[in-house]
Amino acid sequence: MSKKNKILVVVTGDLPNKSIGASTIVFYQFINYLLNKNNKVFVLSINLKKIRKKKIDNFLKSFNNSNIRLIETVYFKKFFDFNRYNILLKKIKTQELGNNTLKKINKIQPDKILALDITAASFSKQISSKNLYIWLGDLNFSTIWYHFYYNFKGLLKFYVYFFYIKILIKKWKSFYKETLINSKNISGTNSNIKALKKIGIISKYNPYPWPNFNKIINKEKNKVPSFIFFGNLNGLGSKSAINYLLNFIYPAYQRIWGNDGFIIYVCGSYKLPADFEKKIKKLKNLKLMGFYKDLNNLASSCHGCLFPIDVPVGNRSRVVTAMASGWPIIAHKNVSIGNPSLVSKKNCLLAKNATDFSYYSKMLYENKNLRKKITLNALKTYNLYFNPKKALIKFGNFIDE
Length: 401
Hints:
Layout lengths: L5 E7 L10 H14 L3 E8 L5 H9 L6 E8 L23 H10 L3 E5 L1 H8 L6 E5 L3 H13 L3 H25 L3 E4 L3 H7 L6 E2 L20 E5 L5 H22 L5 E5 L6 H8 L4 E5 L4 H6 L3 E4 L9 H9 L3 E4 L2 H4 L10 E3 L2 H13 L1 H18 L2 H12 L2
């Protein structure tokens, strides 16, 4: 950055973290970059529950930089001034920041405000609309629809709640437009760009900085065709993927390798929805591993990583982790809508349907050279776009505008 600035960073939910989480890791990278450029960073943390002092101290110490200060942690029972019963009657808006909080911020007189996602952006607008820079993750009005779709498709509830959801989505779109208008916006997923343009908001896609925590392991693969799926098991991407895995990929694998001829490991934090967990336990070739500490070793023994995420929303950090770690990627083609750096048969294999998934899985199992080619190209792509050294240059250009 060309000059030192006082930058207010507004975050909601968990504090940024060097190595835990998804968006929290990305936010940590942004703050660390600002500090490394000799800016003074003031963090406003807005939360739903009290954060222990030890956690706050560890957060501040983790940067090893005296130019960061947590000016306040603000607590609300809920971020938004509505509930599911009155939302159709009310305008969507965040709770009001108190006068004491606004006075503390005015005393600092920040040169710029960086709001990390839409809720933080709405709170930030109560402070100032000038020099407001907003980073966006998945869009609420998109995720609401797909959560609804995967939770209720095929059920009577789908038709009962359909119009309620449609009205809810319309209200969220109005909230986004009002919050983002006249601000500088970037998105961590390419799928946002078109959706935001439809409501009159311009945003640029910037691949997010994602550190690589895994050392590439060159080891012998399992003798049995082995594949792995991992991630936050309760998130939207996993709902989409597990549904696809159980209903389409598993039967396709049975047709190729028989009932006992393959293994699919399912790893990740948080619990699966109960109906998915019940189905998985009945399928002997699916191994539910839960949170698996040595994921790198397990994934490196498999022939490929499965990402059958057909929901066209988001830029999945689990895919970027696989790119950086040397794990061959087989993904649904919709994954590339959020991450356009994925090119089938170059740095991954993109499948249109279950037939493609099974065909590509067989190719990776049988063809060591193909695995090598795809993983090497994926690592090159990661270094070009997502390695913090590269991705933070683009972020710097954005915050310097």
